């Protein structure tokens, strides 16, 4: 398997843990993913109005708009954009709620970066199999 290098994946990261989002942005950038962080749902919605993204990663637990609300808004604004939900406090019920509302994936913190990268590239349409 390999990454198709024709163009970078545009990723929107929605997480109120600024340090985590910044580390994730830097690591993704080194792997050819252009990541834009947003610290809140309202900031994420504003950014999505101004720019198109190939995929979004949204933390489930946020102040103000929670991850489910953001997921619903994203699916109205950009129905074709895959949304991966990220949580440190997940349970089967929250996973089911996310999937029922259109999430394309559900991952637990702490994350396995390589797994998250593969899911991001796959969701963004840039993962190519050599098989």
From TrEMBL:
<dbReference type="InterPro" id="IPR001789">
    <property type="entry name" value="Sig_transdc_resp-reg_receiver"/>
</dbReference>
<dbReference type="InterPro" id="IPR011006">
    <property type="entry name" value="CheY-like_superfamily"/>
</dbReference>
<dbReference type="GO" id="GO:0000160">
    <property type="term" value="P:phosphorelay signal transduction system"/>
</dbReference>
<keyword id="KW-0902">Two-component regulatory system</keyword>
<dbReference type="InterPro" id="IPR050595">
    <property type="entry name" value="Bact_response_regulator"/>
</dbReference>
<dbReference type="Pfam" id="PF00072">
    <property type="entry name" value="Response_reg"/>
</dbReference>
<protein>
    <submittedName>
        <fullName>Two-component system response regulator</fullName>
    </submittedName>
</protein>
<feature type="modified residue" description="4-aspartylphosphate">
    <location>
        <position position="59"/>
    </location>
</feature>
<feature type="domain" description="Response regulatory">
    <location>
        <begin position="10"/>
        <end position="124"/>
    </location>
</feature>
<keyword id="KW-0597">Phosphoprotein</keyword>
